[in-house]
From TrEMBL:
It holds the Pfam family GFA. This is CENP-V/GFA domain-containing protein. Belongs to the Gfa family. InterPro entries: CENP-V-like, CENP-V/GFA, Mss4-like_sf. The keyword Metal-binding applies. The keyword S-adenosyl-L-methionine does not apply. It comes from Diploscapter pachys. One of its GO terms (molecular function) is metal ion binding. Residues 12-128 form the CENP-V/GFA domain. Keywords: Metal-binding, Zinc.
Amino acid sequence: MVNETTDNRPVYRAACHCGTVQFSLRLTDGTRTARRCNCSLCRMRGAVAVSANLGDITVTQGKEALTLYQFNTREAKHYFCSKCGIYTFHQRRSAPDQYGVNVACIEGMSPFDFSEVPVSEGRIHPKDRVVAGAEVAGWIRYESTAE
C-alpha cells in the first residue's frame, strides 16, 4: 500500500443497497479501469467494476454481513451483502492483489456514468488461455435520452 502521507488518490465511500455493508476505498487508477466481463457470474450480475488494491479497501461497517461466493477454480472471492444481495467487491483471480469493486456501490458513481465500457473475455479466463492476458470481447455502450 502507498504511504498515507504521500497518497493523493481520493478516498471514496461505498455501501451495498441497504447500507448494512459500508466501506472506504482508493482506486488504483481512478475510473480508467472500468470494465465488465462475460464469464458466467459476471454475465448474470451485470456490474461495472473498477480496481482497488487489497490494502486500499476498508470495511467500516457490516463485515459480518458479507457473504463469500466462489465457483470453478475457487480462486476469486466474490463478496455480497447477505441482507440485500448486492455484489460489493471481489478479489480478482486475474490480479489477486486487487479487488474489483462494484461501481454502483461507490457514493456518487453509477454504471451509467460511462458512455462505453469494455467487456473482458471471461468465458475462457485470462489465466486459462494458451497465451495469457486480457482480451476485449466487446463493448457496452450507454447513451442517455435526458437532455
